[in-house]
Specification:
Layout lengths: L1 E2 L1 H18 L3 E5 L7 E2 L2 H17 L6 E9 L4 E8 L6 H4 L23 H10 L5 E6 L3 E9 L8
Parallel strand pairs: 2-4
Antiparallel strand pairs: 1-3, 4-5, 5-7, 6-7
Helix pairs in contact: 1-2, 2-4
The chain binds adenosine-5'-triphosphate (ATP) and magnesium ion.
Amino acid sequence: KEADLHRLLHYAADRFSMFGEQQDVQLSLEVPDKLPPVYIDLDAINQVLDNLLSNAIKYTPQGGKVVLRAKINNHQKRVLISIEDTGIGIPSRDLKRIFERFYRVDKARSRGQGGTGLGLAIARELVQAHGADIEITSEWNVGTTVTFWVPFAQGGKTG
Ligand code: ATP
Ligand code: MG
């Protein structure tokens, strides 16, 4: 179904603004004024945003920043959505396994934050169910950016 991505992103940022404040992490939204209609499962993409925003805030020390960003790619008829943080980062040796179920980087480092290691695995499954994909770039002690894309409604897959 067609979905209002603009509203979805604002709602997601609103859901996490309190958590961000509690952790002294500044969450901001950089989204174009107008976004094309996209063909997505709203609940699924909400879940993806929840998983990625909770990671970004959870793994970013006090005073850090998280940006939720959307960019339109007219050529490929998709909207790129990224969550960028200034957090603890992920060592390169762990990056290739990070989307595996239950995979977590050394838990000692993550401010004692609990978790099961499912958030990224679920996010990837939900994004891939849209015929789309998700990728992660990260630098240890600098930050992490997770990017996924969703298809425009008119160019979207069927079914
Ligand atoms: P869950 O999401 O199931 O509560 P989790 O956050 O540990 O637990 P994932 O979301 O799958 O699991 O993330 C896997 C691991 O990747 C995390 O344990 C953490 O080590 C690392 N990670 C994920 N996102 C980030 C991030 N933004 N910055 C730094 N490390 C991250
Ligand atoms: Mg998580």
